[in-house]
Amino acid sequence: MRLFTALLLSLFLLSARAGAGEVVVAPPGPNSVCPVCGMFVAKYPEWVAAAVFKDGHAHYFDGAKDLFKFLREVGRFDPGHSPADIAIVAVTDYYGVKTIDARGAFFVTGSDVLGPMGHELVALATKADADEFMADHKGRRILSFDEVGAEILKGLDKGSAK
User: Fold this and answer.
1) pLDDT tens digits, one per residue of 109-138
2) pTM of the full predicted structure?
3) Is the dihedral of CA 145, 146, 147, 149 positive or negative?
4) Number of folded domains in the chain?
5) What pLDDT, in 10s, does the model give residues 64-81?
6) What domain range is 121 assigned to?
7) Is residue 123 exposed (0-12), middle (13-18) or buried (19+ Cβ within 10 Å)?
8) Where does 15-143 have alpha helices with state H?
9) Pairing between strand 99-101 and 86-92?
């Protein structure tokens, strides 16, 4: 089993950069549950986000919002891991519906597009895509990975993220 996990991790890491911002992450299984909200993740493939640890363990999320909540409190949701153990952080690009590196993505808040849990951080691969999305969907703000903080997440839950 450990050999399988090591091989799987090697595949993740070797293929992590499949293109401009794209990362390869195994899709969630039909029974994969978001550790933050408890929803079945595979039902929402256009919103899937993931955190893959160096030991090959992965958590899947029904959107970037729950991924960021997880990242803020990894030890709460997964006591066996720490933030330093994370190898890949991925989100699904809204336009390309492909898995991209969350650390380089752009996130739009306040748009008219709702995710599985309501107001969501809509992930986009490029600034140009984020600008286009803002214009098309009445977005309020474009954020980088590092700009998504606790207040943004609280605002999304209240339906008022700016």
Assistant:
1) 999 999 999 999 999 999 999 999 999 999
2) 0.85
3) positive
4) 1
5) 999 999 999 999 999 999
6) 2-158
7) buried
8) 64-72, 74-77, 127-137
9) antiparallel
